[in-house]
Amino acid sequence: MGDNTKAESARERSPLLPDRMATADFFVCDILDAAPKGDMASMEHPVFSIATKPDRNVRRYENGRNFVEITPSVKGLATVHDRDVLIFVISQLMAAQNEGRGVSRAIRFKAFDLLTATNRGTDGRGYQQLRAAMERLRGTTITTNVTTGDVEVLDGFGLIDSFRIVRETRDGRMQDIEITLSDWMLNAVTAREVLTLHRNYFRLRKPLERRLYEIARKHCGQSASWRISLVKLKSKCGSYSTDKEFRRLLSAIITEDRAHGHMPDYGIELDEDTVIFRSRGSVPAAEEIYEGALDPEAYADARAAAPGWDVRHLEGEWRRWCGQQEIVPKRPGKHFTSFCASWFSRHGAP
Question: Could you tell me if residue 146 is inside a domain?
């Protein structure tokens, strides 16, 4: 009886990780509310390892005339979960660009903000994993002829050029981090060669699930469906499994998704040797505008935050910006006021 109860409980439990962001009791306008973004080049090609143990294999992926060769450090290739660091940084840079601010390869941020925004734990283990992720990102070397921003970089380069822990607490937890991106990554950002990711991407447990979502987001996009052979999908995932084992792993994810619908934005089907990704219709259109209600008090707060400006004009700018960033503010009034204060600091009085 006890074993049956445990089996039923396992079937009913969601495959997704808990949503740690749901309990966050703070507000950071352009960090936690900004839509997560991934660069298209590394969504297209298997740059990140989906292995659960250190992957020290040199891999080369070719697609037509394009090639990507990835060489690990002694600590292994950067993993799909290490990619969270780049997603966070890219999201910050895109938010800055959309606000008309300049961007550079170097970016500084709070480690706690990254851990929270990417649904990671903020205990000591979370900080240790973050340090290890940055070491693998720095140590992984890319050689490729894939262009970003119409620029071809043929020299070997790291996913990040460097990282620096600026301040660390006495108990070993880092506070401020500085990361310098490679030119390859920055070119993708400045050319806006990025795609918005569903927030539940950070709740996917299995590396293969994350990789499947990235591929679907890049190739299926807003189309109704997209097809690929099982063999080619295995190659795009960067899997070292046999064809039989990869089919088994994929089938298990499909079965779990049918029971829970946990895969974001796209469902997956397997028809003999063809994999079909079908859109769930949840990928937002690029020109959507946030339409949430504002309390009357928000307008008074906005006038105080941006004296002299027409708050209705600022409201329109804010709603368009939220739509571009695919932001659904948890506290719209406070978010709008913060936007107005930021607007006034950049533009001054009208």
Answer: yes
